[in-house]
Write a structure and sequence with these properties.
This protein is mainly alpha-helical and about 270 residues long. About 70% of the residues lie in helices and about 0% in strands.
Length: about 270
């Protein structure tokens, strides 16, 4: 796997933006008459020039237009082929690839059946593998693939696939999304009954992060998972501590229907 270590782009040598704008009506006319291949050929011809000139805006527009052309025509295999081929072009601009992948991801939910959905997700995961500039997109695509595994009861496959993504090292993903991703990894480990891995993954989350007001939902999910883990391990004092963290959460402490039960569990596991 070739790891891409930079997102630095070369300096633009020529601006093709006007050429791109001028081409759009011609492409739209071809598409309207059902000439998808001819429209793609037109886009390919100009994209070769914009890529050589390191014109990021123009190249991105053309790559997105290729995706839209295939998606609008429901040509899912061709869409996959276009994304794969354009991402491998010599000197392809990294940010343009990211834009293309992001646009292609919008068509995942528009696929007509589950098989087409899986194939598109897998194709995009292949394109994004080992590329730092699309690491967040790969993580999100992986969650989509995992959801399919889980829907079919393939918990082991779902868990193992999600573990491939080490989001804690992703500089371009915000902390909330990272935490949410890690919590999903923990949840699937619990579903798989892989308690050792669950414990290891739990250390990737710093509980101090939950002091922020906008993290209550994440905090509750974390401690509910930790309760399940420590119940399995027989660590009842830790279970009591986890319930105490839940009890001190504003949405729980201010809810008269919730806090009495949580307080009862604190005391119960404290004396066990």
């Amino acid at each position: 796997m070739d790891l891409d270590q930079t997102t630095t782009e070369p300096k633009m040598e020529k601006d093709y933006s006007e050429s791109v704008k001028a081409l759009q009506p011609e492409v739209e006319q071809l598409l309207a008459s059902g000439q998808l291949r001819a429209a793609l050929d037109k886009l390919h011809g100009l994209e070769k020039k914009t890529r050589a000139a390191a014109d990021l805006w123009s190249t991105s527009q053309l790559l997105e237009s290729m995706v839209d052309a295939c998606g609008a025509a429901s040509e899912w295999v061709m869409l996959e082929q276009e994304v794969a081929a354009m991402s491998k072009k010599h000197g392809q601009l990294k940010q343009a690839i990211a834009k293309m992948v992001q646009r292609a991801m919008t068509y995942v939910d528009k696929t007509p059946d589950e098989q087409s959905r899986i194939e598109l997700i897998d194709a995009l995961r292949t394109v994004t593998e080992g590329k730092i500039h699309v690491e967040v997109e790969r993580a999100r695509l992986t969650r989509m693939r995992v959801a399919v595994y889980e829907a079919h009861g393939q918990i082991t496959e779902a868990c193992d696939t999600l573990q491939e993504i080490q989001v804690e090292t992703y500089g371009s993903m915000d902390r909330r999304e990272k935490t949410d991703f890690i919590l999903e990894q923990m949840r699937l480990c619990l579903a798989k009954r892989d308690y050792i891995r669950l414990a290891i993954i739990s250390h990737k989350i710093n509980p101090k992060y939950f002091q922020r007001d906008d993290t209550e939902d994440l905090k509750l999910r974390f401690y509910e998972l930790m309760i399940q883990y420590d119940l399995h391990e027989g660590n009842y004092l830790e279970v009591s501590r986890h319930y105490n963290q839940i009890y001190t959460t504003k949405s729980i402490s201010e809810d008269a229907e919730k806090w009495p039960g949580v307080l009862q569990n604190i005391l119960l596991y404290l004396v066990l």
